Amino acid sequence: MDLLLFFQTIRHIYLNYHFGERSSRWINSTLTRHFQFSFRMIIAFSLASFLTYGTNLKNHLSLLFMIPNITILLIQETFGLTLSTNIQLMLIIIPLSIFFYILQNFHLIYYHYLLSEFFYLFTSLIISYQCTQIPTRKLSLLFNSLFFVTIINQKNLPKFFAFQLLEIFLIGILISILISLFIFPLFATFDIENRFNYCLLHLQHMYHLIIQAYLCQDQISAKIFLSRAHIIEKMIRKTMITTQSRFDETYYEPSRLLQKLFNRRRRYIIDLDLQDQQDLICSLILHICSLELLVKQCNFNEYHNNCMNELKSSLLNLSRCQSLFISCLIPHSSSITRDEVLNHLTNLQLSFDSVHSLYIKVRLQSIENTFQSDDVLSHAFFLFQLNSIVQLLTKTTLVNRKKQKLIKNLVQGNWSRCLTALKTMIIIAVGSIFVMIPYLANKFENGQWILIAVCMTQGDTVGGAFTTMKMRLIGTLFGAMWAYITYLSAGDDTYRTILMLCPWIFFCGYMKLFPQWGYTVTVAASTPIVVNLGRLPFADSLPAGNYALLRIQQNVIGISIALVLTIIIFPVFAIDLLKENIHSTLELCRNNVESIVHIYKKVFHNEDETNDKNLIDFSKFDDIKFHIDNERRCFLKLISIQRTLVGYACIEPSCWWLNNGFSTSRYKKLLEQQIDIYRMLHNINTCLLRMNECLHIDTIDGIFLPEFNNLSKQLNDCLKIWSSYFYLTKTKSYQIFRGSIHQTTSLIQSDLNKYEQCLIELHRTVVYLQIEHEKATNSVLKYYFQRFLDGESSDNFIPYVKNNEIDSIYITLSAMHYSIAQLAQAALSLGTTIHDVFELETTNLYQPF
C-alpha cells in the first residue's frame, strides 16, 4: 500500500495534477514548480545544443546558435501556452518562408537596397497586423529580420536559405513542444484545476475565520480573525488573477478529455468543466466577501450577543459540515464513495436548517428589540449569505445543469490594429537604416542587433513598451556578464561553452516564473547563447569581450530609438486604455442596474410596458441566470485587464497631460470600489432569483418590498456622468486616432458641479432608505404588538414561525434591503474617489511644492 501511494505521489508530481489538501508543501509549492520549469529549460537547451553541434546539422545549416536560442525563447510555463505560441508562429513563418523563397530566387532583393527595404517593411506590416499576441509578433518579426539582415550582409547564400531558416525555427518549435509534453508537463487544464482546489480549500478556511469573527463578543477580537481572513483573501485573489490568463492557454488542449481520463474516479462527485469551476469560485468569493463586509460593520450589541449565544454551536457545526463536504470535492489519495458524499451533503443541509430554526427562535424571543433596530437587516443578510453558499455548493457539484455556450465577442477594432501595425512598421523602418545603409552597417558591425532590439521591444501601449524595454536592458546586462564569465572559463571550446551555459539556463528558468522577472530572465538566458555560441564561427577575429560589449551597445541604441519613436508615432498610452476599461466597467454596472429593474418587475409582477423598451428581454429565468453569469465573467475580465493597465500607466510620462501626474493609489482604490459595487449588484440579483423560486406574495401579510426604482434612476444618472469623465479626458492623440475629439477644458467646472450634485443626491438616498425601512419596520412592529395585546399566540399572526419558506422570503427581502443600502454606500464611495481623481487630474486646486 505504501509503495502504491509512493508511485501515485510521483505520478502527481510529474504530471502536476490533483494537489489536494493533504499534499506536502514540498510537493505542491512554488519552489517545486520553479525547479520543474528549470529542468524543462535546461533539458530543452541541452537537447537543442546536442542536435545542433553533435549531429550533421552543423554541416549544412548556418545560424546554428539560433536553434538552442529559439528553443529557450519558445518554451513556456504550460503546455497549452507553448503549443498555442508555436502553432500561431508556424501559421506566420511558413507562408513567409514561401514568399521569401520566391523573392530570393527571382533576384528581387539582391543588391537592391530600396527594394529590399520595401519588402521588409511590407512583411513587417503584415506580421504586425496579423499577430494579435505580442510574443508571437516578436518572434515573427525576429524571423523576418533574420532573413533580410542575412540577405543584405551575406552573398552567395543557398537558394533554399528561407527554408533553412524555417528549418531552424521548426526544430526549436518541435523540441519545445516535446519537452513541454514529456518533461514535467504542466497542462493549463490541470493548473486551473489545481488552482480551483486551492481556492476552494482556502475559501472554506476564510469562511470559518469569518464565522469565528461573527461569534466574537467585541469588535477588537473580531478584527483579529478578520485580518487573518483578509490575508487569505489576498492569496486567493492573487491565485485567481493567474487563472484568468490560463483559459486562453487551454484553447489547443483537449481539456474535457484530460478531465475524463484523470477524474474518472471522481466524476460522480464533481464533473465541472473549467469555466464552471471558475464560476463557482467567483460566486463563492463574492458571497464570502459579503459576509466579511457585514462582520466588519456589525454592531456588537445586546441583540448580536443574543444571536451569538444561541447560534454559536450550530454555526460552528455548519462550518464543520461544510468543511467536510468541501474536502470530498478536493482530490484525496483514498477514494470516497458516493454514499459518503451524499451523507456529508445531507449533514450540510441539516446543519443550515438548524441555524435557520434557531434564528427564528432568537427573533421571536427578542421581537421588540429586533424591530426597533437595524440589526435585523444585517443578521438576515448574514443568514442569507450562508444559505446562498450552501445552495451554490449543492447545485454546482451534484446537479446536472444545462450547458449554454458563451458567445465571445471576437470582433476587434480593425482601425486600431492598422494603426498599431503602421506604427510598428515605421519604428522598424528607422531601425533598419543601421542594416540597409552600408556606412551605418559598417560602423555598427552590420547593426543587426539594433534592428532586432527594436523589433523585440514593441508593445500595445507606451507603458507596456517601456516595461519591455526596461526588462530587455537589464536582461542584456546580466546575460552579457555571464557571457564574459563563460568565455573566460571555456574559451572557444563548444562543449565547454555549452556546459558553462547550463547552470545559467537553470537559474533563468527558475526566475522566469516570477511575473516581474519573466521577460528579463528570458533575455538574460538568450544573450550568452548569442554571444558565446554565435561568435564561434568568428572566434579568431572577434574576442568575446568585444562581442558582449557590442551586444550591449547595439541593444542600448535600439532601445533608445524605440523609446523615442514609441512616444512620437501614434502613441497609445496605457492611461487611455485604462480609462476606456473603467468606462466599460461602469457601463456594465449601469446595464446591470437596468437588468435588475427588469428582473425586479418580473419577480414582483410589476411590469411597466412604457419603460421596458430599453431593458433586456428575458423570456424565462434560465435566460436571466445565463445573462448574470455572462456579466460576471465580463466584469472579472475587465477588472483583470484593469490591474495590468494600472501597472503600465504608472511608468508613463503622465505629468505631460495630467496636472498632478498619475495617482496609482487612487486608481487601485477605484478598482476595489468597482468590485464592491458589483458584489452588491450580484447579491441583489441573487435575492431576486431566490424570490422567484419561493415567492407567493398573496400568502404573506404585512410584507414590504424594497424600494429600488428611485435608486436605480439615480445610479444610472451617476454612473453615466462618472463614466463620461473617463471617456472625455483621454489624451488628444487617442481621441484623434480614434476619430473623436472632445473639448474638455470648457466642461471642467460644470462637470465638477455635476459630480458634486450626484454625491449629494446619493447621500440623500442613503438617508432616505434608512428612514423608509425604519417606518416599515415600525408599522410591522405596531401591527404585531396590537395582536399581542389582543392575547393572540405568535403562531397565529407571525407567518414565519411555522413556515420556513415564508421565513426564507422575509430573510431574502431583508437581505435585499441591506444590499440596496450597501449598494448606495458603495456608489457614494466610488463617486467620491472619482471626484478626487477628477479634481487632481483636471484642476489646479492641488499644487505640489
UniProtKB/TrEMBL annotation:
<feature type="transmembrane region" description="Helical">
    <location>
        <begin position="61"/>
        <end position="79"/>
    </location>
</feature>
<feature type="transmembrane region" description="Helical">
    <location>
        <begin position="556"/>
        <end position="578"/>
    </location>
</feature>
<feature type="transmembrane region" description="Helical">
    <location>
        <begin position="109"/>
        <end position="127"/>
    </location>
</feature>
<protein>
    <recommendedName>
        <fullName>Integral membrane bound transporter domain-containing protein</fullName>
    </recommendedName>
</protein>
<keyword id="KW-0812">Transmembrane</keyword>
<keyword id="KW-1003">Cell membrane</keyword>
<keyword id="KW-1133">Transmembrane helix</keyword>
<feature type="transmembrane region" description="Helical">
    <location>
        <begin position="86"/>
        <end position="103"/>
    </location>
</feature>
<feature type="transmembrane region" description="Helical">
    <location>
        <begin position="168"/>
        <end position="188"/>
    </location>
</feature>
<dbReference type="Pfam" id="PF13515">
    <property type="entry name" value="FUSC_2"/>
</dbReference>
<feature type="transmembrane region" description="Helical">
    <location>
        <begin position="518"/>
        <end position="536"/>
    </location>
</feature>
<dbReference type="InterPro" id="IPR049453">
    <property type="entry name" value="Memb_transporter_dom"/>
</dbReference>
<feature type="transmembrane region" description="Helical">
    <location>
        <begin position="418"/>
        <end position="441"/>
    </location>
</feature>
<feature type="transmembrane region" description="Helical">
    <location>
        <begin position="37"/>
        <end position="55"/>
    </location>
</feature>
<feature type="transmembrane region" description="Helical">
    <location>
        <begin position="473"/>
        <end position="489"/>
    </location>
</feature>
<dbReference type="GO" id="GO:0005886">
    <property type="term" value="C:plasma membrane"/>
</dbReference>
<feature type="transmembrane region" description="Helical">
    <location>
        <begin position="447"/>
        <end position="466"/>
    </location>
</feature>
<keyword id="KW-0472">Membrane</keyword>
<feature type="domain" description="Integral membrane bound transporter">
    <location>
        <begin position="440"/>
        <end position="564"/>
    </location>
</feature>
